[in-house]
Amino acid sequence: NSAKQLAAQGAVNDHYPKSPPKYIGIGSGSTIVHVVASIASLDKSLTASTKFIPTGFQSKQLLLAHNLEILDIDLLPPGETISVAFDGADEVDSQLNCIKGGGACLFQEKIVAVQASKFVVVADFRKISKTLCTPSTWPSGIPIEVVPSSYPYVTAKLFTLGATNVTLRPGGKAKAGPCVTDNGNFLLDAVFPTLPEGNDVVQNLAEAIKGIVGVVEHGLFYGGSKGWQGRPEVAYFGMED
Ligand code: DER
């Protein structure tokens, strides 16, 4: 963990605002735990007047545990932006496009990221790929949040887009039946062949997936010629110990 702790510390030192921010976004997963610990150890003048916006139950509990004030994203006042959103990632390519959603919070993470002035990712060095969908880096595919009744239809459509395997994410030991997101939706994990290099490859796939009726959101956080869709401005990687 010390590698991830160092990466998290670096991200906070470099990108937490030097004057007290009004709003900071906090993602989900295991790496963000180190980011929040670093933020909590900052001078209290930098955090006491800040509202921290969580991206799920675990994110919220983490902030509460550090006595950091919470604000749900739907209470962000109109016209306000989040100074910086910090988060993890499941796979990051050479252009910093990401696959996110391993923690089933991708919708909340993306609705926070798109309302932030700056999006910073902290990840283990093992998440780095040349292009996304590299099996050795992140084998379980692109998480896609879908309206429950649509999952058979979306599954079929994903195969026509070139998916090689599509799984309805199970609830695991937690329950008999599928994982249900905080938004009451199902998750499909869609494995695609390793993406080729080239501009707009991620954008094109993302747009095709988003165009399927029943898809609420997907775990591709990217940028392209048509604009920015959640790609982090910077990423910090915990290097090998
Ligand atoms: O679901 C996500 O995108 C989370 O950020 C998460 O997958 C990051 O994972 P980790 O920080 O536990 O490696």
TrEMBL record:
<protein>
    <recommendedName>
        <fullName>Ribose-5-phosphate isomerase</fullName>
        <ecNumber>5.3.1.6</ecNumber>
    </recommendedName>
</protein>
<keyword id="KW-0413">Isomerase</keyword>
<comment type="pathway">
    <text>Carbohydrate degradation; pentose phosphate pathway; D-ribose 5-phosphate from D-ribulose 5-phosphate (non-oxidative stage): step 1/1.</text>
</comment>
<comment type="similarity">
    <text>Belongs to the ribose 5-phosphate isomerase family.</text>
</comment>
<dbReference type="GO" id="GO:0004751">
    <property type="term" value="F:ribose-5-phosphate isomerase activity"/>
</dbReference>
<dbReference type="GO" id="GO:0005737">
    <property type="term" value="C:cytoplasm"/>
</dbReference>
<dbReference type="GO" id="GO:0009052">
    <property type="term" value="P:pentose-phosphate shunt, non-oxidative branch"/>
</dbReference>
<dbReference type="GO" id="GO:0006014">
    <property type="term" value="P:D-ribose metabolic process"/>
</dbReference>
